[in-house]
Design goal:
Number of strands: 5
Largest sheet: 5 strands, mixed
Distance between the termini: 71 Å
Radius of gyration: 24 Å
Strand content: 5-15%
CATH topology of the largest domain: Nucleotidyltransferase, domain 5
Helix content: 25-40%
CATH superfamily of the largest domain: Ribonuclease H-like superfamily/Ribonuclease H
Structural class: alpha/beta
CATH architecture of the largest domain: 2-Layer Sandwich
Strand order of the largest sheet: 3-2-1-4-5
Length: about 220
């Protein structure tokens, strides 16, 4: 049986990108604070930094902080800027897999969304492509993409790390391409994809296949 590790242990496995000089807070404690604060509705670094200060004395210790103070906004910002995001995503996905146990996803929905509130003036918002398993109520993996037009390429990368065997993959018409379908089949899965005007020949072939030729129409029923 797979031993379930805690999220704290997942965070502790990450390499700490900070210099040992002047480091005040453990990396797992900071990441735990960010996680708890965001789950409770914090939507900015200011709100995350304020979150433990609004709680009872000793709240920080429950998250793993070894000092009475907790990180300020600048500390949070500096850490997130230098954190290895790819390693973070990989370790987090591995932890999620242990939480799913022996269950395999029956359906995997792939979709891209811009993070609400991540845009700042002329700076575009963060766009993520995620693979969600409804049966497990879990995001299996996600990738950051430069913009919506790059989702197709990112999806091909995402399929390489997903447990596709026995699963049915769904997505919108943007992903209705031969290479996407081929990657799903090679992984042991199947797919349900819509066909729209971005695939005119395929759409015409499907429409023709479901049309009944006039010459083969059944004769009209004759009244008795």
């Amino acid at each position: 049986m797979t031993t379930l590790t805690s999220l704290w242990e997942c965070f502790a496995s990450l390499p700490d990108p900070r210099s040992p000089l002047g480091k005040r807070h453990p990396l797992p404690a900071i990441l735990s604070l960010i996680t708890v604060a965001v789950l409770c509705g914090a939507r900015s670094l200011e709100a995350i930094a304020q979150f433990p200060r609004d709680r009872a004395r000793g709240f920080g210790a429950l998250l793993g902080f070894t000092r009475p103070d907790t990180p300020c906004k600048a500390t949070l910002s500096n850490l997130l800027r230098c954190l290895d995001i790819e390693r973070f995503e990989a370790d987090l996905s591995a932890w999620i897999a242990t939480r799913c146990g022996e269950q395999s996803p029956r359906e995997i929905a792939i979709d891209g969304k811009a993070l609400r509130g991540s845009a700042d003036g002329s700076v575009p918002g963060v766009h993520l492509l995620a693979a969600y398993a409804p049966h497990l109520d879990t995001v299996l993996a996600q990738l950051r993409v430069d913009c919506k037009t790059n989702e197709h390429k990112a999806a091909l990368e995402l399929l390489q790390v997903l447990p596709l065997k026995g699963a049915v993959v769904t997505a919108d018409a943007m992903f209705t391409h031969a290479d996407f379908s081929r990657a799903v089949l090679q992984g042991g899965g199947d797919y349900i994809l819509p066909v729209k005007d971005n695939q005119p020949q395929l759409l015409a072939d499907i429409t023709l296949a479901f049309e009944t030729p006039p010459g083969l129409s059944p004769p009209a029923a004759r009244p008795n």
